[in-house]
Write a structure and sequence with these properties.
It contains twelve helices and no strands. By secondary structure, the protein is mainly alpha-helical.
């Protein structure tokens, strides 16, 4: 029902635009073709706009408010593309090239709306920063910079989908966010995983009988914070093994007692696999 309502809205908007089309966005040459053929083009343009909007809706989450914005952008795009059917009826190459050029001009505007509305534009780390914008106190200026970078990375991925943009995303976060925002970003990013890992760690300690002398609330918090620091280092140094290990070692220098006991359990289990018969201290 809601989807039918949205498409009814889109159809109404198309009709409104078609009846009162403004041609200020057209070049003089395009406007001349439009004036000469507008009546015939009107009967075709609404179908093309509807098809393009359906294509966007099939790939992304689109609200009614976004649909209104898209409708005007897509209408202009499709009008200009249709004009070149009339301008170059026999020159297939010129017509194709102009349509590609036009789509490129409007694509950035469409992608910007999609990204700022929470759609992942092939830049998951920057998308996550926008998602947590309120929690991170990201300013409008920072949001624009993150969006510009995300769309820039998307252009590269459109050309080469296999391209790894992890380093560029991380650098963008470091350049655009404050140190505090950058640290909080990883707190929100990893919250679910660290919560699960902490719960599992505490269960392992209990099963080993190593929690009777520990304050559960304090120990749980210590495990959580330690694992959060480790995960942050893992994220930042994903492609630098030496730096990652150095960061882990630095963090482990201040490992709290529950973590030390977890490491002892790991060493004991590893020794069992290797047939070690020595003793372990907690």
């Amino acid at each position: 029902m809601k989807k039918r309502k949205m498409w009814a809205l889109a159809a109404a908007l198309c009709a409104t635009l078609s009846l009162s089309a403004q041609t200020g966005y057209l070049t003089d040459e395009e406007a001349a073709v439009w004036r000469e053929n507008s009546e015939q083009m009107d009967s075709q343009i609404n179908i093309q706009v509807q098809d393009k909007l359906r294509e966007i809706r099939s790939k992304y989450v689109v609200t009614e408010e976004m649909l209104i914005s898209f409708n005007e952008i897509v209408y202009e795009q499709e009008v200009r593309k249709l004009i070149y059917n009339y301008m170059y009826p026999e020159d297939h190459i010129a017509r194709f090239q102009k349509k590609i050029q036009i789509e490129s001009q409007y694509k950035n505007a469409i992608d910007r709306i999609l990204f700022l509305s929470g759609n992942d534009m092939a830049s998951p780390k920057l998308h996550l920063a926008i998602r947590y914008a309120n929690h991170l106190s990201i300013s409008p200026e920072q949001k624009e910079l993150l969006t510009d970078k995300a769309l820039d990375l998307k252009k590269g991925l459109d050309k080469d989908p296999r391209k790894d943009v992890w380093k560029q995303e991380l650098q963008a976060l470091q350049d655009i966010l404050t140190e505090e925002q950058f640290d909080r970003y990883f707190t929100y990013k990893n919250a679910g995983k660290i919560t699960r890992d902490t719960r599992d760690a505490w269960t392992r300690l209990k099963d080993a009988g190593l929690t009777t002398d520990l304050d559960s609330t304090k120990s749980y918090a210590q495990i959580y914070m330690h694992k959060l620091k480790i995960q942050k280092a893992t994220d930042i140094y994903t492609y630098d093994e030496n730096a990652r290990k150095e960061a882990w070692a630095a963090i482990d220098l201040y490992a709290p007692l529950p973590i030390k006991r977890l490491y002892s359990i790991n060493r004991k289990n590893q020794a069992k696999k290797q047939g070690y018969r020595g003793s372990f201290t907690w």
